[in-house]
Amino acid sequence: MQNTNNTNETVGSFQWVTIYKAENTLEANILKGLIQTSGIECQIKGEMLQGAMGEIPFDQTQVSVQVYAIKERHARQILVNYQQVKQSAPDWVCPNCNEHNGSTFDFCWSCETSKND
Ligand SMILES: [Zn+2]
C-alpha cells in the first residue's frame, strides 16, 4: 500500500500566518524575539524592502511577523501583552525638530531634546 497523501495532513497547522504588521524591521525583530522566547517559531517577511525605502510606497515597507497557524493563538496573546505595554507609553514627536521618536526614547534621537520639555 502506498500512501501518497501523507504530506497534506498537517498543511493547515504548519502554514505561516501573519499575526502582526510591524512599522519597521526593528519592531518586527523585537516581536520575533518575544515570540521565540516563548518557544514559538517565528519568521519575518518583507524586511528586505527596507533597503529600498524612499523608492517604494510606504505601506510596502511594512514588515510581517509570521508564525505557524498551529501557534497563532499563543502568539497573539504575546502580541496583546506587547501592545498594552506599547500603548502605555506612546510614541512622541519632538517639540524642537518635529522628529518622530519611539516610546522607549527619553530624548530625541535627532537633537537630544528631552521628551518632557
Ligand atoms: Zn528633536
From TrEMBL:
The organism's place on the tree of life at top rank: Bacteria
UniProt cross-references to InterPro entries, sorted A to Z: DUF2007, Znf_RanBP2, Znf_RanBP2_sf
Domain RanBP2-type: 86-117
Keywords from the named record: Metal-binding, Zinc, Zinc-finger
Pfam families: DUF2007 (PF09413)
The name this protein goes by in its record: DUF2007 domain-containing protein
Species of the source: Pseudoalteromonas fuliginea
